[in-house]
Amino acid sequence: MRKILCSFFTFCIILISGQGKRFFESGEAQLKNPIEKINLRYANELPFVKVLIYGKSYNFLFDSGAPTVISNAIYNELNLKKKHKGKVKDSQKNKQEQIFTELPEMLVDNVVFKNIGAIVLDLNTGELGCFKVDGIIGANQMAKLFWRVNYSENSLEATKDLSLFDLKGYDIIIPFESKGQKTPVIETKILDKNIKLTFDTGASGRLRITDGNFDPKKVKHFVETFGTNTLGAFGAGKPVTGYIFKTNEMLLGNKIFQNELIATGSSDLIGNEFFKDFSFILDWKNNKIYMKRIKNNSVTLESFGFGYRFIDTKPVVAFVFKDENFPLKIGDSIISINDVNLDNLTTDTACNFMLNRVEKNQSTINIRIKRNGNILIFNLNKKQYLN
Predict the structure, then answer these.
(1) 264 touches 7 (CB < 8 A)
(2) How many angstroms separate the CA atoms of 180 and 88, rounded?
(3) Which of 130, 136, 211, 248 lies 20 to 30 Å from 115, alpha-carbon distance?
(4) Could you tell me where the DSSP H helices lie in the chain?
(5) Strand, helix or coil for residue 314
(6) pLDDT below 70 — which residues of the chain?
(7) pTM (predicted TM-score)
(8) How far from each other are the two terminal CA atoms of the chain, in whole angstroms?
(9) How many CA within 13 A on the CB side of residue 354?
(10) How far apart are CA 374 and CA 255, in angstroms?
(11) Which 3 state secondary structure label does DSSP give 26?
């Protein structure tokens, strides 16, 4: 049984300008061996790899939902040249104008990437800074090779010859389309609607569809929520009403999945909570994803009925289930959970508690909050929903 705590982080970045789309065709990859085994660290439901740029080590996210990205610090340290500027938006539809540049060389273990187009972003702001990410190996960079991924074994492999990957057992075959930045987009049917999902290894959650694709008349049971439970590359979205439900059937490629847990939001995505039950191969030459199930976990929605963000190092309730008489409200400032003091945190301790939640693996919590100058204390039990 898997516990779903209703938190979702995605670095998904979408290009807006046509100039940006053409830009990401550049670059090449060189391998020393027919199959290269690459370091992978799977943590907080996100995959990270170490890269070397001119002898200096950096931490990059392996993210099929974004183009390649480097931090402002790398851009300035290497004195790189601006190719142009263009607008991009993240998974929360926040938009910014960013610098587009070209990275002359990057080493990922024995894989050498040359002249890769990249967006320059500030990766050190707010909650994003807690991940200590220096950049993103994005879809435009991934598309130059075949990749085999297995989060359970922290395994990442790359090759230029698909036949070197044994496809035996990879019985799920999902076609995808990719445009511009090369992000894979797969088609499915949910609630009788054809929906295009971004195949997003930079998303920590399971499945999400846009609000407009949800029809409560076609769902027997659902949980109504309010607030913000998703963070994108440029911050959080606006508080909105949302829903969490189970769909009877969902078709992905040649496989029907039943009783899948899905949340609504601002983007159509499928993420790592789903992927980690599989070994999967990404094939941009034939526009296919091959998947082999390696775990059989039932999906259960368990929650204390709320989620919180760290805003300026202060934990604040940002998301609640609309349960009758639920005591917490959006904007409540959290002072402590289970007598762990969360008030007056430093940036480092706030990041530690953001990535290592006090309430994780607990079935009951005592929470002290501040609201309108008053201190309130509540005892909350974790509940199962949508049984």
Answers:
(1) no
(2) 12
(3) 130
(4) 18-23, 72-77, 139-142, 272-275, 347-355
(5) strand
(6) 1-21, 90-94, 232-235
(7) 0.92
(8) 12
(9) 26
(10) 53
(11) coil
